[in-house]
Specification:
By secondary structure, this protein is α/β, with parallel strands linked by helices. It has two domains: 6-96, Metallo-beta-lactamase, Chain A; 103-245, Rossmann fold, CATH 3.40.50.360. The protein contains eight helices and ten strands.
Length: 247
């Protein structure tokens, strides 16, 4: 019963516990009392970071809601929806169906700067093909913001330097987090740099393969990118963008 929906027939109020909520701290109680764009951004962040793994179940429950009249949605977290409760229901339907747009999210960290050069050049290649791209350096970013951007992206591109034949620690943490959320309908690509020996890129790819996600490809270089390798990164980004436009 922890995640049970309760419907008050007489007042047409839905109390859905975790669903339709936000981690939004405000003295206001209702959706028409707060900034709509902030509210929807927080609702998307809540869905992406907490409810994304349950998308199939959520979609079935939303279909059940079509049979009842709802005036108010009062979740256990955040703002109460009273002015237009169908707005958040429609958003949940879109998110649970795996809606995505022509967009890529690049997530990386870097040790001596080589992986960062790759990340920025791949982003330039994607932009060259007029596809939206979001670039996140893990040490400077909040992972919940990254996952919110991933909610409606078509491609997740992850970059890591190799340390001790493995992923950089911040990238390893991110990979475990995002795979656990089971994002639907995304293509994955990987890149990275290494010194004595590689390992990070293969390790990331193996994690994704075990979860049956679709892999576009990978790019790995040794030491600092040469002029030719920078061009390879640019072309890698262009090719990913064209793949996105074909989805």
């Amino acid at each position: 019963p922890d995640s049970m929906f309760t419907y008050i027939i007489e007042d047409e109020i839905l109390m859905p516990n975790d669903a339709f909520g936000q981690h939004l701290a405000t003295s206001e109680r209702f959706d028409d009392e707060v900034n709509e764009s902030i509210l929807m951004e927080e609702a998307a962040k809540y869905y992406a970071n907490i409810l994304m793994p349950f998308s199939d179940l959520i979609l079935r429950k939303i279909q059940e809601l079509s049979n009842i009249k709802i005036k108010i949605i009062a979740p256990s977290h955040g703002i109460i929806w009273r002015s237009n409760p169908m707005k958040i229901i429609s958003a949940y339907r879109k998110w649970s169906e795996g809606f995505s747009k022509n967009k890529a999210v690049i997530v990386y960290d870097t040790m001596w700067g080589s992986t960062e050069i790759m990340a920025r050049t791949i982003a330039e290649g994607i932009i060259n093909q007029e596809v939206e791209v979001k670039l996140f350096k893990l040490r400077d970013s909040d992972v919940t913001d990254i996952v919110t951007e991933i909610l409606d992206t078509k491609a997740i591109i992850v970059g890591s330097p190799t340390i001790n034949n493995s992923m950089f620690p911040s990238v390893s943490s991110f990979m475990n987090y995002i795979i656990g959320l089971k994002p639907k309908g995304k293509i994955w690509a990987f890149f990275g740099s290494y010194g004595w020996g590689g390992g990070a890129v293969n390790q990331m790819m193996e994690m994704v393969k075990k979860n049956n996600f679709k892999i576009y490809g990978s790019l790995e270089i040794k030491y600092v990118p040469t002029i030719k390798e920078i061009q390879d990164c640019f072309n890698f980004g262009k090719n990913i963008a064209n793949e996105i436009k074909g989805l």
